[in-house]
Amino acid sequence: MLLTIITITVGVVGYRGVTNITNAQKEIEHVRLPSVESLYMIDLAYNSVCDAERGLINRRMMDTEIRDANYKSIEKAYNLADEGIETYNSLPKNDSEVKKWDTFIEEWNLWKEKNQKVISLSKEKDKYVAQGFELNSDKIAELDSVTLQFSFAAREVGTVLSRHITEMVDESMKIAEEHGIEADNHAESSALMLLIAIIIAVILAGLLGILIANNIQGVIKKIVIQTGEISNEVTKGNFSKRADVEATNIEFRGIVSGINEILATLVNFIDSIPTPSMVIDNDFNIKYLNNAGLALSGNRHLNVIDTKCYDYFKTGHCNTENCACSKAMRNGTKSSAETYSNVGSSKLEIAYTGVPVKDKTGKIIGAFEIVTDQTAIKNEFNKSLKISQFQTEQTNKLIENLSKFAKGDLDLNLRADFADEDTKLAKQSFDQIYSALEELVQVNKMIIDKAKSIAEGDLTISLIKRSENDELISALDSMVKANSNIIGEFKTAIENIVSASQAMQAVSIELSEGASEQAASSEEVSSSMEEMVANINQNAENARSTEDIANRAALDITEGNKAVSITVDAMKKIAEKISIIGEIAERTDLLAINAAIEAARAGEQGKGFAVVAAEVRKLAENSQNAAKEIDELSKSSVHIAEESGKLLQKIVPDIQKTAVLVKDITAASLEQNAGSGQINNAITQLNTVTQRTSVASEEMAANAEELTSQAEQLSETIAFFKTDTDKIGASRRDKRSIVLAKRNEGSATSGSEKLVVKKKTNKIIELSDDEERSNFEKY
Hints:
Elements: H1 2-57, H2 64-90, H3 95-130, H4 138-212, H5 217-236, H6 253-272, E1 277-281, E2 286-289, H7 291-295, H8 309-313, H9 324-331, E3 335-341, E4 348-358, E5 364-373, H10 375-406, H11 424-455, H12 471-602, H13 607-718, H14 726-749, H15 751-761, H16 769-775
Antiparallel strand pairs: 1-2, 1-5, 3-4, 4-5
Helix pairs in contact: 1-2, 1-4, 1-6, 1-10, 1-11, 3-4, 4-5, 4-6, 10-11, 12-13, 12-14, 12-15
């Protein structure tokens, strides 16, 4: 009965320890790891949205495919975030986590609202750009400004979001670590309690045998010896040791079998612990390894007893002073540590604890080790660390490329480094950036190639715009075309100078011939001008007489017009006075009527006054009628006088105009007289100028020849540049050469005639520059 109680006690202790360890591992596996994973999903989605948002704001990334990719990336990131939020929301949380999660959801909704505003403004901008709005237009600039404001506001909220995520991840990791430590403690305490229970059970079994079978001391002594040996072996970690049932008396075989069954039960309990557990001796030989420990190698039937623990687990602490079991055996106290293990074909991240094992005398004979697999937790942490390191490396690489590009170095490495499954999302963002940068580099290389062609004189090149908003290429193309046009016009101007100089040479010869002929004609013109001067003087005298008569008539008519105006004014005043008389007569008539009425009221006394009133009334009526007749006559007289004044006014301008015309005739005659004298002087000067022109034309021909030579030399220099107008210019030069050749033939035939004219006239006058200018007159 006592053995049964001991066995049940040991079983309960073992089961309780296994249950506590299992609960701790379930908390880590089913709550903490999913919590950390879902929070990392949310953080990754947030960073992806921020990257795509920066792409939408960047003016250099206006390509439709890139912007569509950014919109899709944002949508995908939102779905990933929703999945993470849903997962985390379904997991158990403590009060602190619930409070932080509620705060995070509020901040997340606020950030999402501002980010959605950035996306809607970006799509609105895309619509305006599609309608033809320029990027530098006021409308687009206003949209960009508002978008940046919302983006900055979203980033401020996003900073708080990132901090909340970090805090929640840290708390989950802390709780997971606490549960790991708790599992370790439960495992350690369970193992110790099992060992103690085994030892107690063995001791009690031995004592029970001694007390019960004192009479069969020999048999019991043998059983005790076997039990002691088993106890010693169990203490050393050899759980495979069993008592020899066959060597025991048949009546005591049940006891020995019970001891073996207790050991088997205890071993089964220890083997069922999900945490790897091991017992080693002072030489690090494995004395016991449970099923969880064997499972790490992938072969549960592997025999590792009496092999070295460091050959099996192959940890980073093996054969070093950092080994927790080595410390426990050296110091006699529990020791814990974390490291990696290369057991089997996999590499594990583990936390393990070593507990010293002592014999009956207190001597340390080995160590008991419990191992906790932290691979999943470490992997998630390493994954986050790897992503952060990848982003840092690629950002530094991008900064280096941008620095080289800013200095004009186009030999850039525009490929993101290789990314594995963990960093592929981060790599996609850098691939988009490098794609845009690659396009920019290619455009710069194209511009450099075109610039080299221009430096070699080729102005026939053309630059094709990448889009309607490509102002750089448009400006460069306009510059090349403008330079081409200028060089073309310059070539044309040089050709014109050559042609003009050749033509000037021919014209100078013709000018010399014409000057000689003009000298002969000027003498005939001089005699005719003298007769014309006499006629002009007679006309001027007659015009003066006519002008005096017209001026006197105009003055007389003006005086008459003034008299008529005075008469009209006087008649208007008379008419006004007469109208006053009419008003007085009308009022007198009214007074007479009133007097007659009053006389009638007076009766007999008023009869005489009534007769007087009647007479006064008649006089008033006669005065009124006379005033009306006079008024009508006055108005008629005024009208006639006004008409007379108008006629006189019409006559005055005509007479004055006649006087002016006569005066103009007189002035013209005087001017003609003066002009004829000037013409005579001009004819004399013309003869002098003609002789001087002949000499100047010869000098001009020599200068024209020199100008032609200089223009041809300049034409050879400017021919370095090649333009689209070169063929047209060549055709034009051929036509000019034909025309000039014909003109030069005509000039050559007239050279001898010029000399003959000089001999006939024999009037070449040599004058200095000062003499010429002093004798010439300006007209």
